[in-house]
Amino acid sequence: MKWRYGIVKYTSETTGDVHYGLGELYFDGDPVTGVFACTESPVTFVSDGLDSDNEHADELRRSLEAALKDALKYPVFDASTLPKGETQS
């Protein structure tokens, strides 16, 4: 299973409210047309703390750079196009 970051349009099933966030998109084959699941809620980026070499901060920076690269590269994904139950916690 492959995954990428992407901007996701989330629509509340109960209220119909729409919001956009950065999610993880899981796909087979093509990273745009092959999406079969996404995170239920937008992802967060955190570090467990800094060590003396700033290793955690550097990893956080790399994750943010990867997320931005994917967000700029791929179109917005509408989570409501997935079959019910195909979001990930």
Structural description of this entry:
The protein is α/β, with parallel strands linked by helices. It has one domain (2-83). The chain contains 1 helix and 5 strands, in the order E-E-E-H-E-E. The chain has one helix at residues 55-73, and strands at 2-11, 18-27, 35-39, 77-78, 87-88. Strands 4-1-2-3-5 form a 5-stranded mixed β-sheet, with helices on one face. A hairpin with a 6-residue loop joins strand 1 and strand 2 (18-27). The mean pLDDT is 88.
Summarize this structure briefly.
The chain is an alpha/beta fold and 89 residues long. It has one helix and five strands; from the N terminus they run βββαββ.
List keywords for this structure.
89 residues, alpha/beta, five-stranded mixed sheet, 1 helix, 21% helix, 33% strand, globular
Integer count of domains: 1
**Given the helix and strand composition, which structural class is it?**
alpha/beta
Measured by DSSP, the beta-strand proportion falls in 25-35%
Mean pLDDT: 88
How would you describe the shape?
Answer: globular
Cα radius of gyration in angstroms: 15 Å
The share of residues in helices is 10-25%
Order of helices and strands: EEEHEE
Strand order of the largest sheet: 4-1-2-3-5
Helix count equals: 1
Distance separating the two termini: 16 Å
The oligomeric state of the chains shown is single chain
DSSP E strands, number: 5
